[in-house]
Design a protein that fits this description.
The chain is α/β, with parallel strands linked by helices and 469 residues long. The protein is built from 18 helices and 15 strands. It has an 8-stranded mixed sheet, sandwiched between helices. α15 links the parallel β14 and β15. α3 packs across α4, α9 (248-260) packs antiparallel against α17 (437-451) and α10 packs across α16 (422-434).
Length: 469
């Protein structure tokens, strides 16, 4: 494996000096003391038995033993969803697994990372709600991950390595966010495997000194053209959680059965972790109001852990005089799923609109994975959900880099074009709801893709790491 800084590529003298100045500034601003390890321990996940959550070592925390470390960050839902896709596979193999979330640790390093994340979330919401010039500027920023940004990120990773150096270096690490992987390499872990998000190759997504796995052949080819050594790069497949991946063929066949029996379509609409898309979805509901009142199809809207977004939808639906149900706990979610199996239609009087909201971040993004298996169509921006084995209706992206994820889904035949306007999305909802051909064809493509191993990327990553445990 090539372990040279930046794979032997160079960002240039000015870029290196600028990155160094930024590092010095952050070190002083947040009082980060080099070579001062943050002591970490493990507590048990309340939602996923067998998963250890890495936090500051204190009362009730256990020493971290031999096993797999999964690195992620609470930045929206996407990177934690990728982490779930990894540890769902490792836990199914009974591999001791620890989740290392950069923002779950109390330290000056984490505070510095958190402040940058807050800015990212703010501008993501602003871009989605305002559109126009604001969206264009944010889109440009999100697609300019050049060598300079990689140089800066790697220098900051060296500054933040206190967040990992106390952990056993023999444990393999699978990371779902580049900074996690870069910190792992800076902290001298022996085996780091990095899962690259999206489908738009950018330098800052890479982890020099690690095995970088991508989701598509086109992404692999582009990274090779950018100078990434072949020994540091491989195509694994899509990052999909174990339960969804192993049932992708059976679930698609059940969806086909529902199509043939003209069952009322279930549209699952998750609101992203940054809290964007609310205005777009409300506009879509307004256009679909008559069909919703007639119960021609169903909108299931996961508002995640955003209480303000939930309240906004409840007020909007009440004003529109559209009946709705609200699910607020994990237990209620599991009961709802048991009452709405994919192979049957609803037998109760559940309103056409159901809202979901949860008190914890983990429940918020995990709920979408649970609901996917009983839904007919996923209505989503082109996030990491773009790679899941379910027919997809894409709504407006947040950042131009997400456009490439739509292209990947179109290439595989299991998603629509991106709907920039709610009117366009409504037109496709109507097509999905009242005709069978397109939905039937998408499910057939998913069956083919599943047989080809397209959705086994996270499984492949865990199998690679397993040899080092």
């Amino acid at each position: 494996m090539n372990r040279e800084p930046l794979f032997g590529l160079t960002a240039g003298y000015i870029s290196k000096q600028s990155a160094n100045l930024t590092r010095v500034f952050l070190q002083k601003k947040y009082s980060i003391i080099p070579d001062t390890p943050v002591s970490l321990g493990s507590t048990t996940s309340p939602l996923y038995p067998g998963l250890g959550l890495l936090k500051n070592h204190g009362a009730g925390a256990e020493t971290v033993g031999k096993g797999l470390i999964v690195g992620s960050i609470r930045m929206g839902y996407g990177h934690h969803r990728m982490a779930l896709s990894v540890y769902s596979h490792s836990l199914s193999k009974k591999i001791p697994t620890y989740l290392h979330d950069l923002l779950a640790i109390e330290s000056n390093e984490s505070k510095a990372i958190h402040d940058i994340d807050q800015g990212y979330s703010f501008f993501s919401r602003l871009s989605a709600e305002m559109g126009g010039p604001v969206e264009w500027i944010w889109g440009q920023l999100m697609s300019q991950g050049n060598l300079t940004s990689l140089e800066l990120s790697c220098q900051l990773a060296d500054l933040y390595k206190n967040l990992m150096v106390s952990l056993p270096k023999d444990n393999p690490v699978i990371t779902t966010y580049p900074l996690n992987g870069q910190i792992s390499v800076a902290a001298n872990f022996k085996n780091t495997i990095h899962l690259i998000c999206d489908n738009y190759p950018q330098y800052y997504l890479l982890v020099p000194g690690a095995i970088n796995l991508v989701q598509s052949p086109s992404s692999y080819t582009k990274f090779i053209q950018m100078g990434v050594p072949k020994e540091n790069l491989a195509v694994a497949g899509h990052w999909v959680s174990e339960d969804i991946a192993k049932n992708s063929i059976a679930d698609s066949q059940n969806r086909i059965r529902r199509i043939d029996e003209n069952k009322k379509r279930r549209f699952l609409i998750p609101i992203g972790g940054a809290g964007a898309q609310r205005g777009f979805v409300q506009e879509l509901i307004t256009m679909a109001k008559k069909a919703i009142l007639d119960r021609d199809y169903h909108f299931w809207i996961n508002t995640g852990d955003h209480t303000k977004v939930l309240n906004g939808f409840e007020e909007f639906l009440t004003l529109q005089k559209i009946p709705f149900q609200t699910i607020l706990t994990w237990e209620q979610l599991l009961e709802f799923i048991s009452n709405h199996p994919l192979k049957e239609d609803e037998r109760d009087k559940t309103p056409a609109v159901v809202l979901f909201n949860f008190s914890s971040h983990t429940e918020a993004f995990s709920a979408t994975d649970k609901l996917i298996r009983i839904s007919d169509v996923l209505v989503t921006k082109p996030s990491e959900l773009a790679f899941f084995p379910i027919p997809k209706l894409f709504i407006r992206r947040v950042g131009d880099h997400e456009a490439a994820s739509v292209l990947r889904s179109l290439e595989l035949g299991e998603g629509t074009v991106e709907c920039r306007e709610a009117k366009h999305a409504h037109e496709l909802v109507e097509i999905f709801a009242y005709s069978n051909d397109m939905l039937h064809r998408m499910n057939e493509k998913i069956v083919k893709n599943a047989n080809d191993g397209v959705y086994n990327g996270s499984k492949v990553a865990v199998e690679m790491a397993e040899q080092y445990i």
